[in-house]
Design a protein that fits this description.
Layout lengths: L10 E5 L7 H8 L4 E6 L7 H16 L1 H4 L3 E4 L14 E7 L7 E2 L5 E2 L1 H13 E12 L7 H4 L7 H10 L3 E6 L26 H7 L4 E7 L4
Parallel strand pairs: 1-2, 1-4, 2-3, 4-7
Antiparallel strand pairs: 5-6, 7-9, 8-9
């Protein structure tokens, strides 16, 4: 959070919070002087998986009103509905370990980045000039095509930087705070902790630890 430059008076959008691991840090930090908006699938989603996740997340927020009472939820559902708010209305957009979900195979089996661009352009639009897009994403080997890596839950760092720049962002800084040099970046991330869904030799993957992650801070240019 310090690397992204978050301040307690910011208006922050967290995209696809999942179970709310980062929400547990963001909500108290922004509670008094800022605003936390969670872009998450609605409870009315047609997807059973997304609907179940939305219900569990809503229950999490409702269980601790003193912590989460000021958090706002806004619908965000792939691929149908992806706006993030009014233009120039947010100081920061954050998303954690979701970027590979924005690369889908098309009807011919080839990967397409159209959904990724839609997300990046939505983030660009909602941010104020000078606003920050903070991304933590599972990193693939540098020479692995995105068409292959997204099936492992990963993206090459150079590819993601290029896509963000195509949407208008400028890369301000990259951090290795979430890096893991033991990870060869060529295996599915769900083989590794905390998922531990490897079909065999679980001890091998536990010894590697969590997946290698890139941490990128992008800025919407002031002009």
């Amino acid at each position: 959070m310090e690397f992204f430059g978050i301040r307690p008076d910011m208006r922050v959008i967290e995209v696809l919070p999942g179970g709310g691991w980062y929400t547990e840090m963001l909500a108290p930090f922004l509670h008094e002087h800022g605003k936390l908006i969670e872009a998450t699938p609605p409870r009315s989603s047609q997807s059973p998986f997304a609907r179940g996740m939305a219900i569990r997340y809503a229950e999490k927020l409702a269980a601790k009103p003193a912590v989460y009472g000021h958090v706002t939820r806004e619908p965000f559902e792939l691929p149908a509905y992806m706006p993030l708010g009014a233009p120039d209305s947010a100081d920061m957009v954050l998303t954690f370990r979701n970027m590979h979900d924005l690369i889908f195979a098309n009807v011919h089996g080839a990967a397409t980045d159209a959904l990724l661009q839609r997300f990046l352009r939505s983030a660009y639009q909602v941010l104020k000039p000078g606003g920050v897009l903070g991304i933590v994403a599972h990193r693939a080997a540098a020479d692995m095509p995105a068409a292959k890596s997204f099936r492992l839950g990963r993206l090459p760092q150079a590819f993601l930087v290029h896509e963000a720049e195509q949407a208008g962002f400028r890369l301000a800084a990259a951090s290795e705070v979430n890096a893991n040099p033991k990870d060869p970046r060529t295996m599915p991330v769900w083989y590794l902790p905390p998922s531990n869904h490897a079909p065999n030799d679980r001890a091998k993957y536990e010894a590697i630890g969590e997946a290698d992650n890139m941490t990128l801070r992008f800025v919407k240019p002031a002009q």
